[in-house]
């Protein structure tokens, strides 16, 4: 369960990254967090794993009061919340296997047990045959899967995925979303930040829409599908154009999948 | 253990930094070993002089054995004397031969007549030395009194100076090695900043991140200490024959292996401590 109550985040410059954000994500839900670049999606995620502290408000993840969490409990929180980072944050000098095994290593799991878990997860995301490759040898979609595998390897109750389809072509994006959706079906709460309107529309899941640090829409998507389409189609279009160069670069790789 | 593996990888991937850290540690422990040898050696020399007959009185050649016996009983009657040993000219020749047995030329030159007979006297209390030596100087039988208190006090002064210089040098070198190690480990932490950040974000505890660096510091310290000790010990063993000749019968050398290994043990402990201190300082400074 995730609960944000009147959360604000003021940055050093005096601007608000988040303003008076309140939201609840129930256990086992699949929620899209949409909004343009800089709207505050990543800030919410970072607050949830206590990478940044909110200026005001209360944050509850499972049973943890995140804001008042003692420092020595932060690592326990992060082990329970899987995070697929927007920039993936894979270690380039380690193989896929080693990257995915890293959370287990950090948690002090024995090597024999870890190997089995990692191989299972790699099988689940379809990377088993690539396990001994280094990140530079993988395509964009494969890298994304590796990052998801790493986020899942400790069997977290919550999975936060920050723009996991941001650099991928449509077909690969769909595979990733399908993977996340499968993970959700197994009981993991999934929050996915995205600005891919097609995916949001077709999956028919709940959408939380934030702009400039404020929640502008927080409803069940299928009820408000029509409204949403109209109000955000333009924005999404803009972002696509902005992202174009990086999009294209990884498309070439992603297409190999 | 995974942290030893990580530390080993860090060392292997930046050999020059490792070399710098190990060199400064080796230099520090070379100095520590060297000064320990000097201090232990000189205190043994002092012990030797202190335990030896503290006054030696050489007799004139014309002194008669009866007179010498009288003088002996006279001295013993003062009650201040712990022991008196009469060394005859023949005994003196024997001692001389023993000391110079490797040098036939010196042996040929000397006969018993050249060497004076003597008393080797030790007192019960060190304060009575001057009294006894005065009595001896006045005696017409005695040609010369060698009063070893002077030797001891000169040696003690030297030892004191060596100790001061040694301790200053060792403290300075230890500080320099800590600074260098902090810098080197700091550089390594900065190089791995991104990895460290990622590991923290996926739930690594502070200690999980710190341990490899701490362990690395300990490894540098211990390897440096072993190298420094080995060089100093090799030097000592190599020079032992020369030093033995130089020290002429003062039982300082050869150094006991047990003591050398005790020194190694203590140095390894100190090295581990220096390693921990410097890597902990680096970790505090560079890992927020």
Please estimate the helix content of chain A.
Answer: 40-55%
Q: What is the overall pLDDT average of chain A?
A: 82
Poorly predicted residue ranges of chain B: none
Task: Tell me roughly what share of residues is in helical segments of chain B.
Answer: over 70%
CATH architecture grouping of chain A: 3-Layer(aba) Sandwich
Number of domains in the coordinates of chain B? 2
Overall, the morphology of chain B is elongated
Secondary-structure element sequence of chain A? EEEHEEHEHHHEHEHEEHH
What does the largest sheet of chain A look like? 6 strands, mixed
Strand order of the largest sheet of chain A: 6-7-8-3-9-10
Radius of gyration of chain B: 29 Å
Q: What is the rounded distance between the termini of chain B?
A: 25 Å
The spatial strand order of the largest sheet of chain B comes to 2-3-1-4
What's the CATH class label of chain A? Alpha Beta
Beta-strand segment tally of chain A: 10
- Chain-averaged pLDDT of chain B: 81
Q: What is the 3D shape of chain A?
A: globular
Structural class given helices, strands, pairing of chain A?
A: alpha/beta
Descriptive account of the structure:
The complex is a heterodimer of chains A (257) and B (288). With 257 residues, chain A is an alpha/beta fold. In chain A, 42% of the residues lie in helices and 23% in strands. Chain A has helices at 41-48, 74-80, 96-106, 111-124, 140-152, 170-185, 197-203, 221-242, 244-254, and strands at residues 2-10, 16-25, 30-34, 56-61, 64-65, 81-84, 158-162, 189-194, 206-211, 214-219. A six-stranded mixed beta sheet of chain A has the order 6-7-8-3-9-10, sandwiched between helices. In chain A, helix 6 links the parallel strand 7 and strand 8. In chain A, helix 3 (96-106) packs across helix 4, helix 3 (96-106) runs parallel beside helix 5 and helix 5 (140-152) runs parallel beside helix 6. The two termini of chain B are 25 Å apart. Chain B has helices spanning 2-13, 15-51, 65-77, 89-99, 104-109, 129-138, 149-191, 193-201, 206-247, 257-286; strands at 55-59, 81-87, 118-123, 142-147. Chain B has two domains: 2-49 and 153-286, no CATH class; 53-147, Alpha-Beta Plaits, CATH 3.30.70.3040. Chain B is of the alpha+beta class. A four-stranded antiparallel beta sheet of chain B has the order 2-3-1-4. In chain B, helix 1 packs across helix 9 (206-247), helix 2 packs across helix 9 (206-247) and helix 9 (206-247) packs antiparallel against helix 10. The interface between A and B is medium-sized, with 20 and 12 residues.
């Amino acid at each position: 369960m995730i609960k944000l109550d009147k959360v604000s985040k003021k940055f050093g410059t005096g601007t608000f990254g988040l303003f008076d954000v309140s939201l609840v994500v129930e256990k086992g839900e699949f929620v899209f967090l949409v909004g343009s670049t800089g709207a505050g999606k990543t800030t919410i995620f970072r607050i949830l794993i206590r990478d940044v502290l909110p200026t005001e408000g209360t944050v509850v993840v499972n049973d943890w009061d995140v804001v008042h969490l003692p420092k020595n409990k932060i690592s326990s929180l992060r082990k329970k919340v899987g995070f697929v980072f927007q920039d993936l944050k894979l270690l380039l000098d380690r193989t896929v296997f080693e990257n995915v095994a890293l959370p287990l290593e950090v948690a002090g799991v024995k090597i024999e047990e870890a190997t089995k878990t990692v191989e299972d997860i790699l099988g689940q995301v379809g990377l088993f045959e690539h396990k001994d490759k280094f990140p530079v040898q993988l395509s964009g979609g494969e890298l994304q899967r590796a990052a998801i595998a790493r986020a899942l390897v400790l069997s977290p109750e919550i999975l936060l995925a920050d723009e996991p389809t941001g650099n991928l072509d449509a077909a690969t994006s769909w595979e990733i979303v399908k993977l996340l959706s499968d993970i959700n079906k197994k009981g993991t709460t999934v929050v996915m930040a995205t600005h891919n309107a097609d995916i949001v529309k077709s999956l028919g899941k709940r959408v939380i829409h934030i702009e400039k640090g404020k929640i502008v829409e927080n409803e069940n998507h299928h009820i408000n599908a029509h409204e949403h389409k109209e109000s955000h189609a333009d924005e999404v279009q803009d972002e696509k154009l902005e992202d174009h160069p990086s999009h294209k670069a990884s498309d070439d790789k992603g297409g190999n999948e | 253990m995974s942290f030893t593996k990580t530390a080993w990888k860090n060392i292997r991937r930046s050999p020059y930094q490792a070399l710098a850290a190990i060199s400064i540690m080796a230099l520090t422990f070379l100095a520590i070993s060297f000064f320990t040898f000097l201090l232990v050696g000189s205190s043994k020399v002092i012990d030797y002089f202190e335990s030896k007959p503290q006054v030696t009185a050489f007799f004139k050649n014309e002194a008669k054995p009866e007179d010498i016996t009288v003088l002996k009983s006279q001295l013993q009657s003062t009650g201040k004397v712990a022991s008196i040993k009469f060394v005859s000219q023949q005994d003196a020749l024997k001692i001389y031969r023993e000391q110079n047995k490797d040098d036939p030329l010196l042996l040929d030159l000397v006969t018993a007549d050249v060497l004076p007979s003597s008393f080797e006297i030790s007192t019960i209390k060190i304060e009575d030395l001057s009294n006894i030596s005065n009595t001896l100087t006045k005696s017409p039988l005695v040609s010369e009194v060698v009063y070893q208190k002077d030797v001891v006090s000169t040696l003690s002064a030297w030892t004191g100076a060596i100790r001061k210089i040694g301790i200053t040098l060792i403290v300075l070198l230890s500080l320099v090695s800590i600074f260098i190690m902090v810098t080197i480990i700091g550089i390594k932490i900065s190089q791995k900043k991104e990895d460290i950040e990622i590991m923290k974000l996926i739930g690594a505890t502070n200690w999980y991140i710190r341990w490899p660096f701490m362990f690395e510091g300990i490894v540098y310290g211990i390897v440096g200490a072993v190298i420094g000790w080995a060089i100093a010990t090799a030097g000592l063993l190599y020079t032992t024959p020369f030093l033995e000749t130089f020290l002429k019968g003062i039982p300082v050398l050869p150094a006991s292996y047990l003591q050398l290994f005790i020194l190694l043990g203590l140095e390894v402990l100190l090295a581990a401590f220096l390693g921990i201190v410097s890597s902990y300082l680096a970790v505090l400074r560079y890992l927020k």
